[in-house]
Amino acid sequence: MGWNIQLPDAEYYDLYSATLDGIVREVQDQKAVAIDTETDGLNIVECNPYYWSLSWTSENGRDRRLTLNANAFPAFKHIFSDYERNWVFVNAKFDAHMMENGKHPIKGKLIDVSVMHALLYEEEPHGLKDMARVHLGWKWTDFSDTFGKIRKGYCMCGGTYAAHKPKIDSKGNPIEGKYCKSTDCHCYMEATALEVLRRAEKDNHNLLVDYAANDAYGTWKLFHLMNKELAEAPTSSLYPDRWPYINTLYDYFYKTEVPFTRVLYACERNGIKVDKGYLQGIAPNIVKDMLELRKQMGELYGKPIIKVGGQWQTEYFINKCGIRPTKMTKGGASGIKKPSIDAKFLTYVAESFRGEDSSKMATLLLEHGAIAKQYSTYIQSMPGRLDGKDYVHMKLNQDVARTGRLSSSDPNMQNVTTGEKDRFHLRNAFICEKGEDMVVADYSQLEMRLLAAASQEPGMMEIFHRNWDIHMGNAAFVFNLPYDDIAAAKDIEKQVKKGKLPESAMTPYVWQCLKARADVKNIGFGLNYGMKERALAARMDCSVEEAVDKINQYMARYPAVRAFFDEAVEEVRDCGYAFTLMGRRRSLPDILAHKDYIRFRAERQASNMPIQGTAAETCKMAMINIYEDTELRTKYGYKMRLQVHDEILGTCPKEYTDIVKERIREWMEHPFPTDIGVPLLADIGSASSWGGAK
DNA sequence: ATACTGAGCGCG
DNA sequence: AAAGCGCGCTCAGTAT
Length: 694
Known about the structure:
The chain is of the alpha+beta class. About 50% of the residues lie in helices and about 10% in strands. The protein has 24 helices and 17 strands. It has a 6-stranded mixed β-sheet. It starts with 9 loop residues before the first strand and ends in a 7-residue tail after the last strand. The protein binds a DNA duplex through helix 13, strand 10, helix 18, helix 19 and helix 22.
């Protein structure tokens, strides 16, 4: 097996073990224990624990490695419900869900070794087996390699949805057998994880005990290692004058990430209610639209379109119509570069070849692209993701984004279409119960505010203190225009669009004001992403020389901003890390790379990390404060449900909406125990759906 | 059959 | 030669 670790004996206990009481007492005395569950699958809504394992270090220094039957849960009830206890997991939220599904929710602190590991080794995988192999030199086989494969076809309902289909025999009749219980899913289950588990417990119980105990033991060993490494990992604030509280990543982890795990668990657990009827109502129309578009494409092409995204596109536009590609793809593993047929190319074709078939085809493809993805991602797959009360429980991943942001998956609720592109009003499908309101709160210009705070640029700070629109303010300061004129220009533009003012109201001066605002907006945006003159010129629709000129003008007005970005890159060159306000760090070794494009990318990341990362922890702190404001939860019935980077979604009973909104505003605008020097502003709305609350 | 990758595109 | 940050999902194509 290649084990490079001293393994304590695996112990096994169940409800009938004579010594179970002794174990309970011993666990009760521990300050922290590692815990893991063996379940019948990976779905956080439907699956349950059947075995669980514990690991800790006894007073005599002996490591313990236990597997327990789920029937022993009740003996530990008082420990599970102890709010002060420390529980150590790998992938904490998953096991916390299993424990609650098994009717024994864990109330104590959720300490996630994956999250610890992500702070130290952001580029490495954070799974238990990977971490154990790399850091402990310890390998043990996967569950399925040990006990038999869980064959494809088993419904995981959080995994590969493509597999969720009824199994059909050669005559087209559904095959008798077990099907997933999930609503409208009905995929065929060949060998459930539960059956594999049952087989293992019958045929090879000792192996099962050994296997399960390893998971908790590995977690425990890694926990100690990561604790030590976090404590030895120096860090500091991006802004030490205002944030002197952090010396090591250990501080950062326990102050911020540990409480945050609990918040995310609550969000996942709460989920978001989906208006199934609404989706079912619009689905047939969308399918009809897609089929019609496909039919028209086939007519133009001359034969039926089997795969809309297939290679026929290249053949058609490039070979048949003779249009020169505007861009080639990267080539990938094979190195074969192909013409890029993306939205940009299609838009170009649609506009440049008006009246020709190629233009019509491009228009059809653009139209199809706009709806197909939305349909498959959010409409087709949604029924199989809903629980018995029509709630979808997305995952909110704490250990993925290098900057400290969250990511969302299964489904990804952070890229649900919005604005103009939300043509089916998908956001209206995310709703709350009758008698409740959806409370949608988002930060206004968070990253620009944090840039002003971090750079301490007086001009920019002044704009926020005056409560000006940041882009209008920047335009006024950078291009020496009166703020009121820019505000007026913006208003005139709006009126003309509505038809309330004639075109002639758009005087050259109005245009100048609007262009000034658009330019500083692009520059501010571009700065954050480390854009160079060329990309900015493209965005601002001007020559590179003009772009350089405008950037220089901007920087001349805001020298502290230039200094901030220069120093951000310089700091990474000096010490290898970029920092956030609260002391999260990101390693960027490529900052010294010889190849320009690798080094430049690291420089862009170095510029972006302090701002994006600090924005992430601003929202993170607000969420922690809101969650830990127990009145909000218990007295006013607020339930947090989702975060979309600078937006926090939740629900509450209608009677408390106003008070909840004000309380949330307070926390969002004052997320830190210290004043960062720039006011933060939150826009808060409420309605009966996500879409309505904007 | 199943797994992986690149391209493309949605969001902040 | 490569020049816009951070994510996740779907599809098509290819590798195993």
